[in-house]
Amino acid sequence: MTMEEMNDMSLFEGAADNADLLEKLLKASLIHADETYQTPPQIIWVDNSTIATLGNFSASTGKAKSRKTFNVSALVAASLANGKVLQYTAKLPDDKRKILYVDTEQSRFHCHSVMQRILRLAGLPDNMNSENLVFFGLREYSPNLRLRLIEYALQTQKGFGLVIIDGIRDLMLDINNPSESVHIINKLMQWSSRYDLHIHCVLHLNKGDDNVRGHIGTELSNKAETVLVISKSNSMANVSEVKPLNIRDKDFAPFAFQINKEGLPEIAKDYVVDSTTAKQPKMTIADITDEQHDKALGMAFGKKVVSGYENVINALTKGYTTIGFARGRTVMSKLLTFLLKSKLVVKCGNNEYCRMKDYPSLPLLEEQEVKK
């Protein structure tokens, strides 16, 4: 099977029921020890650390108003100029100089402002279109249509080396839905591999902590080549810091930028970033693996039914503490909602709860047996 055939997903319809096609796909996917495979071309660096290669995807994250889009503008401008902007140095191959920028949440006016900022940073006129920068504002469309439009652009327009999705959460209805999250991540892996390009996504951090937002954030952090975190300085309100949250290559030294009088980001020359203050993300419900759920629920329920809402909350608190997820009542209530929605726990009677895998023939655990 040729690469062109592998890239034609219409051929894969009904693949689960087609033994011949499955056999061809397995043969085409087989890794051989005696073959040589090309190292993915590096296209963007910070100092001597590679943050982006063709065939992969990465992300920027930060809280609201942390100047994430200013940072992405600099990354795109460096790629557009094949040069250096802020601390980003880029070199796209000659046949992949085009950049696709998709904004999912801003108005056309603000999209135009971002586009002009990128052009100015790249040293280009801001009142003339660049053949290497294709910018779409998809704010008014539904999540499913936004996803389809991006896919159609990649299918029909050639020469892209970099794709920016500013607002990946707007490609889905529920950022905490595991199925939707996996579907989006699979699309990123599919597109980056099939079209041999790099995709950089922008996603918010939670307001109340330093965790990447939602299940999609967890999946993105786990699969991305690089995750950058952009945060406002605690000491200077006009300065934002850029640090590596997750990176496959070696860590780079954090840097800081500010916005100049022309409205463009520039290096904050006299500012010193304290790299020791970077916080490690706190485990969220979305971070918990299937194996951890199984262990925690085994400790919480055993093979019994827990009767009463408060008792099941207490049982879950006890069980999930054993996997390092010790949280208060509010979070544990949200966890119970998640477990019920995910069918890991079911209501097996009047205000009675048990594990789905043990339902329905279980002895009743009396309320007094579950200590608060």
- Low-confidence parts, pLDDT < 50 over ≥5 residues? 1-11, 364-372
User: What's the N-to-C terminus distance?
Assistant: 61 Å
Computed CA radius of gyration, to the nearest angstrom:
24 Å
Strand neighbour order, sheet with most strands: 7-6-8-9-3-10-11-12-13
For the structure shown, list the relevant keywords.
alpha/beta, 9-stranded mixed beta sheet, 4-stranded antiparallel beta sheet, 10 helices, globular, Mobilization protein, P-loop_NTPase
Show the helix and strand layout:
Elements: H1 3-7, H2 19-29, E1 42-46, E2 49-53, E3 57-62, H3 68-81, E4 84-85, E5 88-90, E6 98-103, H4 108-121, E7 133-137, H5 143-156, E8 160-166, H6 178-194, E9 198-204, H7 214-223, E10 226-232, E11 239-247, E12 255-259, E13 265-267, H8 290-301, E14 305-307, H9 309-321, H10 329-341, E15 345-349, E16 352-355, E17 364-365
Parallel strand pairs: 3-9, 3-10, 6-7, 6-8, 8-9, 14-17
Antiparallel strand pairs: 1-2, 1-5, 4-5, 10-11, 11-12, 12-13, 14-16, 15-16
Helix pairs in contact: 3-4, 6-7, 8-9, 9-10
Overview of the molecule:
The strands form three sheets. Strands 7-6-8-9-3-10-11-12-13 form a nine-stranded mixed sheet, with helices on both faces. Helix 9 (309-321) packs across helix 10. The chain starts with a helix and ends in a 7-residue tail after the last strand. The protein has 372 residues and is α/β, with parallel strands linked by helices. The protein is built from ten helices and 17 strands. The longest helix has 17 residues, at 178-194. Strand 10 and strand 11 (239-247) form a beta hairpin.
